[in-house]
């Protein structure tokens, strides 16, 4: 049974930064493409960033140039660095496989507000 645990969210002012972490247990991420997703109230969950097993990355247009996804195989973890945050980035952020196939974790709330 795979368990995903996201952390690092919080309240930040517009223009600020946050770093999210996702730790996986029960499954090794080494050969798995992973993604960060977000869901705002009343909006479907969307993919914002993905990283392949080889380390290639891709980003949604809304976050390109501001967010950076990375992974640490030794820690079985995936990260999302978010810079220049905007109010529209407010959402619950989740990690999962690219083309989500595992059970969702609890997510971590990111609120961008002055």
Topology (SSEs and partners):
Layout: E1 3-7, E2 10-12, E3 18-25, E4 34-39, E5 46-51, E6 57-59, E7 67-72, E8 77-82, E9 91-97, E10 108-112
Parallel strand pairs: 2-10
Antiparallel strand pairs: 1-3, 3-8, 4-5, 4-9, 5-6, 7-8, 9-10
Key traits:
single chain; 114 residues; mainly beta; 0% helix; 48% strand; globular
Molecular structure report:
It is a single chain. The protein is an all-beta fold and 114 residues long. It has no helices and ten strands. The protein has strands spanning 3-7, 10-12, 18-25, 34-39, 46-51, 57-59, 67-72, 77-82, 91-97, 108-112. A six-stranded mixed beta sheet has the order 2-10-9-4-5-6, with no helix packed on it. A four-stranded antiparallel beta sheet has the order 1-3-8-7, with no helix packed on it. The mean pLDDT is 95.
Structural class: mainly beta
| Mean pLDDT reading | 95
* Contiguous runs where pLDDT drops below 50 for at least 5 residues: none
Largest sheet: 6 strands, mixed
Rough shape? globular
Widest β-sheet, arrangement of strands: 2-10-9-4-5-6
Radius of gyration: 13 Å
Q: How far is the first residue's CA from the last residue's CA?
A: 40 Å
Give the ordered list of helices and strands: EEEEEEEEEE
Fraction in helix: under 10%
Number of helices: 0
**Number of DSSP strand runs:** 10
- In terms of DSSP E residues, the strand content is over 45%
Quaternary status = single chain
